[in-house]
Every structure is written in C-alpha cells, then in structure tokens.
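Sequence, please.
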C-alpha cells in the first residue's frame, strides 16, 4: 500500500466533575490536532462521538456535525466537544462516526486529484471534480473505535486527559488492485495526555559560518519520523529573544523517533543527523544543532 506521510491526533479530555463528597457524573471534552504532511487536503465529517462503556454501552457525547480539513490543525488542537457530562464510570473506547470525507493528492506531474467518499459529498468545495473514490468502510455505521490507554479510563472526580494518535501515514493508501481508489484503514494508539512528549529543536550557525546570499536558517525544516515511518515536517521559526531558530513537536505518543534536518542547500551539523530519540512518558527532549553551510548534507526540501 502506498501511504501518505501524515499523522492525525485526537486529544480527548475526560474531565471529572469536581464536587464535595464525590460525583456520579463526569465531563468530556474532545480536541483534534494534526501534523504537516503531503496532502493538499484531507477532510472528514464527524457526525457523532461516543464513549463506550462496559458491555459495549454507548454514551453519546456529541451529535453535532463537524467537517474539518485536517491540514489546518498542524501541531495544535481544535476543540470539537467541550464539557459534556456523562455517567461516572469506566470506559474502554472512544467511537467516532465518520459519514464522509475526501483527500486531494498531488500527482507526479504536479496536478492534484480528488478522491471522495461520494461524488456529491457535502464537504467538497463547490465545483470540485471528483477523480476517484475514497472508501471509508463501515465508519458511518459501526464507527471508528479507538481503545483507550491501558484498556480503560475512569471518569468522575479528578481529570483524565487522553491523547489518541491516528497514524494517517499507515491509515490512507491505494486500494489493492487497479481500481485507482483510496481507502481509509485507521491505525491508532492512545496515551494519557499528560504523559505525551515534546521534542524541541534549535539551530544556529556555527562560529564563523555564513549562509550564501540572503539565505537564513528559516529555510531549514526539522523532520521527526516515528518507528512506523510517519513523518512530521515543520519549518524552523526565529525566536527574536534568543536569535535562535527552532521548532517544537508537540503531542507525541511515547516511543522511538528519528530527527533530521532539511535545507535547500548543502550543510553539515553538529551533532550529526539523523538523531535517534526516545521520548518517554511526559518527557521533553531537546536537541541543539550548529549548522555549517557547504557540507555533505544536501537534504533538499
């Protein structure tokens, strides 16, 4: 299966209602976030969100229709459910009912093709021609179910926040055979939000080094790839207070990552790249690089 290098995350905040002597309800907030990638567009329509309790009982926390382009949620979160009360108890899954969507994929010749769940999908921009099918098997009926961390979370008294990582690089690809269709088979992981990690990257010119012409380190990008091969690519930004270029990768599921840098010109870095990083629960990992132009690391963007 050919895949697109993207990651989609859902941040689910299960907010226990605070009250003296305990509570028999809890509150639920759901947020979505995403990371940069190779789509021109990746749009889904969510019409229902549920918590799944013991015995498979559904507790609906939203039936508001939300259509969102996941590309607009780069390295941040967007709230889709806020402070909805549910019975206190233990829940094993989160369930999304997804009734439609489309992706736009750049072709080798630079053109863009659109693959939609149906030719008349309401989320399509006016006048968009549909080139093929995006199959989303059973998500409108049985829904997309995501196991919560450790097998379950408990709501009611206190606050529990869960980060659900939809690895879209592993979840969108060409359908087998020669149909030309795309198909969605989500691959998901879950972790408590407060145990998610961050990777901070900074870069500065090495002593005595200078970039050619009017180039800046803002032309570089940091690339973080997980152990499944899904990459997040973010351009460096200038911190005026420290005169340092850098970026932070947020909302990371604990695991092993590979960190690299890219630029439109050759360079070397100290320390050398790529770097293998292990992000533990709740950990912030930092790497600082000294950049020398004209080296052996072309990495064109």
């Amino acid at each position: 299966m050919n895949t697109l290098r993207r990651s989609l995350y859902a941040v689910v905040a299960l907010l226990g209602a605070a009250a003296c002597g305990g509570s028999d309800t809890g509150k639920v907030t759901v947020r979505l976030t995403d990371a940069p990638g190779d789509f021109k567009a990746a749009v889904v329509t969510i019409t229902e969100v549920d918590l799944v309790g013991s015995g498979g009982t559904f507790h609906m926390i939203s039936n508001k229709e939300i259509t969102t382009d996941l590309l607009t949620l780069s390295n941040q979160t967007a709230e889709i459910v806020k402070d909805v009360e549910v019975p206190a108890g233990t829940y094993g899954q989160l369930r999304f009912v997804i009734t439609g969507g489309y992706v736009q994929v750049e072709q080798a010749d630079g053109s863009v093709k659109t693959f939609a769940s149906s030719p008349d999908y309401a989320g399509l921009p006016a006048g968009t021609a549909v080139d093929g099918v995006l199959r989303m098997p059973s998500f409108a009926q049985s829904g997309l179910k995501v196991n919560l961390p450790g097998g379950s979370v408990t709501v009611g008294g206190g606050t529990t926040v869960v980060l659900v990582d939809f690895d879209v690089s592993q979840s969108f690809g060409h359908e087998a055979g020669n149909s030309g269709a795309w198909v969605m088979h989500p691959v998901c992981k879950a972790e408590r939000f407060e145990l998610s990690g961050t990777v901070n990257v900074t870069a500065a010119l090495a002593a005595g080094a200078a970039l050619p012409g009017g180039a800046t380190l803002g032309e570089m990008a940091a690339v973080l790839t997980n152990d499944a091969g899904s990459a997040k690519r973010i351009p460096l930004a200038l911190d005026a207070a420290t005169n340092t270029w850098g970026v932070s990768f947020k909302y990371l599921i604990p695991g092993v990552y590979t960190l690299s840098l890219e630029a439109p010109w050759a360079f070397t870095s100290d320390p050398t790249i790529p770097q293998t990083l292990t992000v533990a629960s709740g950990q912030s990992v930092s790497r600082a690089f000294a950049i020398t132009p004209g080296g052996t690391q072309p990495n064109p963007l």
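The mean pLDDT is 81.
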